[in-house]
Amino acid sequence: MIRNFYAKQLLLLIFIFCAPSLTFGQIYLNTFTGASACPTPGNVATAIPGVTGTELTRNTITCTAFSNAFNSTTLNNTATINNNSYIEFSVTADAGFQLNVTSLTFFRQGSASAPNQLEIRYSTDGFATSTAWGAAPLTVTSPGATTNWDFDDFTVASGVKLTFRIYPYGPQRADLSANTASTGASFRMDNVTLNGTVISPMPVKLSSFKGSCENNSVLLKWETTWEDQNEGFEVQKSVDAINFHKVGYVAGNSTTLLKSSYEFSDTGIKSEQTFYYRLKQIDLDGSYEYSRIIAVKSDSGDEKLFVYPNPTTGTFEIKSLELKNPEIRLYNHLGKEVPIKISKSENMDSYQIIIKGNPTPGIFELKINDTNGDSKPRSVKVSVIE
User: Fold this and answer.
1) What is the 8-class DSSP label of residue 312?
2) Beta-carbon neighbour count of residue 19 at 10 Å?
3) Minimal CA–CA distance to 133: which of 110, 113, 106?
4) Tell me: the pLDDT tens digits for 345-354?
5) Which of 101, 123, 234, 300 could potentially form a cystine with 196 if both were Cys, beta carbons 3.0 to 4.6 Å apart?
6) Rounded distance, CA 378 to CA 360, Å?
7) Which residues have CB under 8 Å from 317's CB, separation 6+?
């Protein structure tokens, strides 16, 4: 048995006072205090508002009595990670919140004959898939050490359970002696801390929004990754990407963690005209958010000309299978020509347009004239946004 476990207190003080200022906060904390007993005393998760956390649990690993630590035995002393031999805890963002997770920190210590290898993984789908550290430091004996897994930041949606598993394993002993590690040795944890922030997200995660012209109508389609208290979507339309009016409404799915698909058809569309659409997503409490704006050009009945993206921040492409040698010019709302850079694609059927300088947001007119005379002059409205 290790006799210097309490030296970790000094170690942690050194870590706190000598470390640089941290920019993240604690989402979850579990610090163990109490007498030597099983089940482990003080196994109480402390989570910040907006988060629900679980206590530490063991799978095939068992409790062994020790004071002021989460002490475990029946360890895996083989060279291969046993997917059923782990310590686990979870956090879940409450309704109306989501997690931005940045790192995991905890104190670790093994008895002399404990396996000294360690793996840590996290999952948001019950470990159907998971992310593994793969480079966790070795477990040491007295006085122990603090482990910090600074993984790539990621976001977890409301209601999704994020679970961490810690896998002690390996034939090498923590004291590095020549003997094989013992399954009856012990592995201890304390000050388990999950760092990051809790944010109140948009009530709906809109993953796609697009439109197409079909038989004198515009078909709008959109998908959500998840929804929280979503009453529905007001479909709004404009001819100048500035002044919008309501053309329809589609009911939402209230609260769901599943992907949802929606569509709306705007009928009676005039040909050869560009229309702009956006979604006004409305919560059950009446609050709302707007989606990005998309543009759909109705069919002309002959040549197809595509401008993408539109609206644009200043760089876009035009594509037509019939343009041979186009002369392309751009004009602002005053009719003044705006300087642009034109680059032709390798397959010769599309052109990248870059507006030079810092264009003022608004509606521009793109005029295209095929100098070979094979296609009539075309004019397309382009919306420039910040």
Assistant:
1) B
2) 10
3) 106
4) 765 567 888 9
5) 101
6) 23
7) 306, 307, 308, 350, 351, 352, 353
pLDDT(270) > 80: no
Query: Residue 21: pLDDT band by 50, 70, 90 thresholds?
Result: very low
For residues 316 and 265, what is the distance between their CA atoms, to the nearest angstrom?
A: 26
Of 3, 158, 189, 47, the C-alpha closest to 96 is 158
pLDDT category of residue 216 using cuts at 50, 70 and 90: low
Q: What does the pLDDT read at residue 321?
A: 55
Question: What is the rounded distance in angstroms from the CA atom of residue 212 to the CA atom of residue 171?
Answer: 62
Among the residues of the chain, which ranges form H helices? 7-18
Give me the residue label for tokens 């997503």: 281
Length of the chain in terms of residues written: 386
Count other Cβ atoms within 10 Å, centred on residue 364. 20
Output the average pLDDT for the chain.
84
Contact, 90 vs 57, CB < 8 A? no
Cis before residue 309, ω within 30 degrees of 0?
A: yes
Distances in Å between the Cα of 372 and the Cα atoms of 208, 300, 323, 327, 375 are 39, 21, 9, 10, 8
> 0.70 exceeded by the pTM?
no
Least reliable range by pLDDT among 300-304, 336-340, 382-386:
300-304
Give the residue carrying structure tokens 């979503």: 230
The H or E element spanning position 88 is strand 86-93
